[in-house]
């Protein structure tokens, strides 16, 4: 009988543990969250059950799609009945009218002013403490009240070292936020500090993607705002400013260029050392977002300085990734080998490793007007809707679960796991930019429901179990960004209430002695001693703009978009013009290199002075590719490129060899600059040595 007692005891213990998990992670009844949009999430537990003839048991829940994805027509959603008219997205806010009216139908002006002040105070509490305790280091440790830089003792700590380059990251990242808040005096002081104290001549190995979006993007944005003759933020001219931020951006971009060398596909290495180039032990794998989200910043830089190099390498990477998409689904994976072009990670989703790739296809089109960018985005969006979207067709009517975007295998569209991550919360904002407001409202509501439950967004959330998979929250801005953009699109006060909820949650759960700290655990609210730079550059910025209807950004005749790091850039006609095309009018690119370069349709004259005797790396080129003072004519004229240094010649020849005709404009425009010298291109010195 004793063994029976033991068995019964174990069973009782298991039941109690299940109940505890059920309550702690919110698997049971709602915790009283009364959401104005009526969602009935039928999250059935997945069971590997087949009926008698082997057919999959189907339901109207997301779970059915985990095992029945063989019919591509069935991958989207259940249809609403033919006699059920489709409603405007505005009607989504009419459900539960009385409760909605009471809670969400208005937002008093006085409360808006209060929330705007609260968002401003939140920014300055973090910014002032960073300047007091951390500057010139990269980040603030808000609990210890001290600065944080790269982890030099542990180079493999990429969680830190990918982002922190020993270049005052938080100050640079926050530049345009100061202007958004109207603090011209501090903006000027910060710009001068950056010019006087920051150098990129550092032995720091950083992630190309992070350096691009956080540093390069902010420098370009601040420069554009400083020099905009329309003065949308008033007279903010800085005395004696001589385009230093633009020169710094160019300097950093040149130091990132080695990532694009020695790669068979044109897809860049994920990391570079700012002094030495690509590390010898660098891996050949990179994520789609990391390699394919450089075009906005690199493209603007190219068009500002008249040098196509940066846009060309970024665009080549995007095209290379795009050409690797699945022929069956049109989807891309999340990790690729830059040498072989093989997909190492076959997961296709909207979160980490994928998110900003899609974002920059659309934003590049908005900025540069390139039809190919729009074509790629439209095709990608169609594939996303066909293969990633699950649930019913309409957001708030019809049978089945509300829409959700899941992670699938890029080759067959089958669900690979049952979690989504917090980065995916950016997607409603992108849907707003694309004009798909209905789907944006619905997906945003899903993420806000998670926020309401935990007072934060867990890094990963299991939609099947309705529980966090990864519990930390590093103060990410994606949900705030989508909230802001949805409010701009709908002007519905509901989104002001969402913003207030987020603001108050951050104030309650993340504020510590010297700033705002990462939540280590969204349930028990324990913290980690780190305040990432995007908290000031994005989270606080979007919260402030949400409540500041009269901000110059909203009142200006100019239109702006936000980079993926939240930096503002104008939609400007000058970014739709390419100066190098006017000066080098080649009509048609050659897809394959000609057998003899003298047959090329474009023109090239290379005159090498002083340095030619040192350039043993020229041996890599075919003998008939380049001879001193040899001239090739073809498209109605000739271009003469004069080079004085090994570094410049090497860069031109390497580029010319890789893409032949399409890189000739780069060869030409590099020497259009008046300051071509070794000092202008630091970091290239070592490159020539590697080719000897």
From TrEMBL:
Record-level GO cellular component terms: endoplasmic reticulum membrane; endoplasmic reticulum quality control compartment
Membrane topology: Single-pass type II membrane protein
Entry cofactors: Ca(2+)
A single MF term (Gene Ontology): calcium ion binding
Alphabetical UniProt keywords: Calcium, Endoplasmic reticulum, Glycoprotein, Glycosidase, Hydrolase, Membrane, Metal-binding, Signal-anchor, Transmembrane, Transmembrane helix, Unfolded protein response
Coiled-coil region: none
Enzyme Commission (EC) number: 3.2.1.-
InterPro entries, per the entry: 6hp_glycosidase-like_sf (IPR012341), EDEM1/2/3 (IPR044674), Glyco_hydro_47 (IPR001382), Seven-hairpin_glycosidases (IPR036026)
SUPFAM superfamilies, per the entry: Seven-hairpin glycosidases
Keyword field contains Endoplasmic reticulum: yes
Catalytic residues of the enzyme: 210, 355, 459, 478
Protein function: Extracts misfolded glycoproteins, but not glycoproteins undergoing productive folding, from the calnexin cycle. It is directly involved in endoplasmic reticulum-associated degradation (ERAD) and targets misfolded glycoproteins for degradation in an N-glycan-independent manner, probably by forming a complex with SEL1L. It has low mannosidase activity, catalyzing mannose trimming from Man8GlcNAc2 to Man7GlcNAc2.
Protein name (Swiss-Prot/TrEMBL): alpha-1,2-Mannosidase
């Amino acid at each position: 009988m004793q063994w029976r007692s033991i068995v019964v005891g174990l069973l009782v213990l298991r039941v109690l543990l299940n109940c505890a998990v059920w309550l702690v992670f919110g698997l049971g009844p709602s915790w009283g969250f009364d959401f104005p949009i009526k969602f009935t999430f039928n999250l059935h537990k997945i069971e590997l059950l087949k009926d008698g003839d082997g057919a999959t048991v189907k339901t109207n829940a997301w779970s059915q799609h985990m095992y029945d994805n063989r019919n591509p027509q069935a991958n989207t959603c259940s249809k609403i009945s033919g006699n059920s008219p489709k409603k405007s997205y505005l009607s989504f806010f009419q459900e539960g009218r009385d409760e909605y009216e009471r809670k969400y139908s208005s937002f008093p002006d006085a409360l808006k002013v209060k929330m705007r002040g609260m968002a401003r105070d939140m920014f300055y509490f973090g910014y002032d403490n960073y300047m007091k305790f951390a500057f010139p280091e990269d980040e603030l440790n808000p609990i210890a009240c001290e600065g944080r830089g790269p982890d030099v003792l542990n180079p493999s700590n990429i969680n830190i070292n990918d982002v922190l380059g020993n270049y005052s990251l938080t100050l640079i990242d926050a530049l345009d936020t100061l202007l958004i808040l109207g603090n011209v005096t501090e903006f000027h002081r910060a710009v001068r500090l950056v010019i006087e104290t920051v150098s990129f001549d550092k032995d720091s190995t950083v992630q190309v993607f992070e350096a691009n979006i956080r540093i390069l993007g902010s420098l370009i944005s601040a420069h554009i705002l400083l020099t905009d003759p329309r003065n949308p933020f008033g007279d903010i001219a800085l005395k004696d400013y001589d385009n230093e931020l633009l020169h710094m951006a160019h300097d950093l971009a040149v130091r990132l260029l080695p990532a694009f060398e020695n790669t068979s596909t044109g897809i860049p290495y994920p990391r570079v050392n700012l002094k030495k180039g690509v590390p010898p032990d660098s891996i050949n794998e990179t994520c789609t977002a990391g390699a394919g989200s450089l075009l906005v910043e690199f493209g603007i830089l190219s068009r500002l300085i008249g040098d196509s190099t940066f846009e060309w390498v970024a665009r080549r990477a995007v095209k290379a990734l795009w050409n690797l998409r699945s022929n069956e689904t049109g989807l891309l994976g999340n990790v690729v080998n830059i040498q072989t072009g093989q997909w190492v990670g076959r997961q296709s989703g909207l979160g980490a490793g994928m998110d900003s790739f899609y974002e920059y296809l659309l934003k590049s089109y908005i900025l540069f007007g390139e039809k190919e960018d729009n074509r790629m985005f439209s095709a990608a969006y169609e594939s996303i809707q066909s293969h990633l979207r699950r649930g019913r067709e309409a957001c708030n009517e019809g049978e089945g679960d509300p829409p959700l975007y899941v992670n699938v295998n890029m080759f067959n569209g089958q669900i690979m796991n049952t979690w989504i991550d917090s980065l995916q919360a950016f997607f409603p904002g992108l849907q707003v930019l694309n004009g798909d407001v209905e789907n944006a409202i619905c997906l945003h509501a899903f993420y806000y429901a998670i926020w309401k439950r935990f007072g934060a967004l867990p890094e990963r959330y299991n939609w099947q179990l309705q529980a966090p998979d990864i519990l930390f929250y590093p103060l990410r801005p994606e949900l705030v960004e989508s909230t802001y953009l949805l409010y701009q699109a709908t002007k519905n006060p509901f989104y002001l209430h969402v913003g207030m909820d987020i603001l108050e949650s951050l104030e309650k759960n993340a504020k510590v002695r010297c700033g705002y700290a990462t939540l280590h655990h969204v349930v028990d609210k324990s913290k980690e001693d780190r305040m990432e730079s995007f908290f000031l550059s994005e989270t606080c910025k979007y919260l402030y703009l949400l409540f500041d209807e009269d901000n110059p950004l909203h009142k200006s005749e100019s239109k702006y978009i936000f980079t993926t790091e939240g930096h503002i850039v104008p939609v400007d006609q000058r970014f739709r013009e390419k100066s190098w095309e006017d000066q080098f009018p080649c009509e048609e690119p050659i897809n394959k290199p000609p057998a003899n370069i003298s047959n090329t349709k474009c023109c090239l004259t290379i005159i090498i002075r002083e340095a030619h005797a040192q350039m043993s790396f020229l041996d890599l080129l075919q003998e008939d590719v380049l001879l001193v003072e040899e001239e090739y004519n073809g498209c109605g004229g000739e271009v003469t490129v004069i080079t004085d240094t090994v570094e410049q010649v090497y860069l031109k020849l390497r580029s010319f060899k890789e893409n032949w005709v399409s890189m000739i404009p780069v060869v030409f425009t590099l020497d259009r600059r008046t300051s071509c010298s070794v000092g202008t291109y630091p970091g290239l010195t070592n490159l020539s040595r590697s080719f000897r």
